[in-house]
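Problem: given the chain below (713 residues), write out its structure.
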Amino acid sequence: MSEETFDELEMETERYELREPMLVGLVKPDRRFFVQAAGSGLMLAATFTQPPRLRAQQGRSARRDEPLADRFHLGEDGIVTVFTSKVEVGQGSRTQLTQAAAEELGLPIERVQLVMADTSLCPNDGGTAGSRTTPSTVPRVRNAAAAIRNLLLKHAATRLEVPVTKVSLSNGIFAAGERQVTLAELAADENLKQKLATATANANEELKPVTQWKILGTSVPKVTARAVATGSAIYPSDVRRPGMLYGKVLRPVSFGAELLSIDLQPASAWTEVRVVREDQFVACVAPTSYAANQALNAIASTAKWNRPPHVSSDELFEHFKQTGDTDSDVSEQADISRSLTDAHHKIDTAYTIDYIQHAPMEPRAAVAEWNGRELTVWVGTQQPDRVHGELTQAFSLPAAAVRVIVPDTGGGFGGKHTGEVAVEAARMSKAVGKPVSLRWSREEEFTWAYFRPAGLIEVKAGLNSDGKLTVWDFANYNSGGSAIETPYRVSNSSTRFIRCDSPLRQGSYRALASTANTFARESVMDELAGLAGADPLLFRLQHLDDGRLKNVLLAAAKSFGWETAAGQLELNRGVGLACGTEKGSFVAACAEVEVSKNKIQVLRVTQAFECGAIQNPDNLRSQVEGALVQGLGATLFESIGFKNGQIDSDNFSSYRVPRMDDLPVINIELIDRPDLPSVGGSETPIIAIAPAVANAVARASGIRCRSLPFKLS
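Solution.
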């Protein structure tokens, strides 16, 4: 699948899930602040022939022959600055992209710095979603870095009066025998400036092969580790501007509620409080967040609402059945029915998946500042370009008048693709004529941010008398189509995603619907293995072709000691396994659990993961562990309940996430494939833990858990 096709599918998924249009704006670069910050040097990026956003829109040409001026600044201090629209939300992309540039430029890590996610400075590499940084942006950065390296080598050869083949490059020093010239000296060279101002990188630049990697492929520590550890790192909620005020927004009393009336007078009891009202939008702005919140509470008590009826979580899955668009191929379904009738063993079952929240450490936050008709917003988002478009549309501004800056952000997991907090902050700032900071509370984040889609999955499957899978019918209602196709050999199959009406706002989540679909499929595979009287591992191996998925399954089973563990279980203990693939990477998990008095304790987990050539082993291991733990929360605890249009769990006191004493002994087996292209590692590792634990629980207790989170009673 081409990169363009993949991106179109990702965008289409998000358009459906978020129920809002994809907005794209055009921006004119303004790099004055960066010139002041970076000092003298070769500001390649000052020579745009078109804004990067415009190039990206015109057939994504920036992904082909990319002007080096979009991507780099060579400083006379020997520091290279790289520009990218990607966002650091804890997944390690800042370090990874730094490694990519340093590798191709032949520079140490400390000589490369990144400017990320600024719509006035950075070329449009797309948002941070879909595990696309590794397979898409890393190669783009490497291509551009390799092009600059080759130009620098040629220019150094001219300066040193030797053939380019005689010039070596190490740590920013170009040498030929005893003679040398530094990167800093070249950056000050006027002739080189002219060449680089119009130079481009194409998709065929010669990159360093994996066998020659010195920086990529190694466990480079997080480049901002000191700032994070000492508390000096600046997150969106830390941004301060001169004269800044603080805002709080009135939220509806329930989903879909319409504000009929409100008395704004009680807010006047707090001095220096300004009340902003635009139709249904009501907010208080004050010198402190405390005063803004107190004033808002005073007027909120006077509000009168029209509350429409709303589906409850108890009615959710029936609601999906009633509203699902179930058009399907009649002849295909007839074939499935005949095959099921002829099957020696058959299963007809359903699995349910609750809504859950992303629960990032940092709730949504933004600071908005107007300068006449120009707007700048500092905001935590994974999609700076999308937020830019939302702001231009909301305020009818030309694209060049809006700038979105995204500081490194405290978590996202797919939950920060939209810009509502930016628009709200900008509304308040425009009304009061000063910069305004808006920080959502934890309650707002749990209630008004979008959720991971809930789902109903119906599965019918059959085996012949030899225990071979002959029929597979899989229907996902609402939660999504990612990883929906079975990787197992089957002679007759039907797989479909059925769109439904969602009573809650829903959107992207780590691995999208892959967790739900893998949970249902791998649970059913264990049930089928039981009907066939086969070991769950051997049953899967019999239905998998040789290749990467089978390899990770075998690696996980070997490291876990599957054969021994499965044959020597104590009372109330069980083991289970599962595997899956999504976004080009492969995962398998084995789990051991203990079930006692309706309580599940996961004792140990081994997970094998393969995503091609590994670019930073320690960071990848952290991502795999983090995904596994997050998946464990959705497996055992996390659930959003709702009734009468209101959320039941709106804080960590009522919304259970994994704690330290919930965690099992974790063993991660990373499988390095230097012969294969690198793909993303932050999403797929979440998908196998739920079915592995479900299968272990079934073996320990005889109870088949068919819901996420599990319900034993």
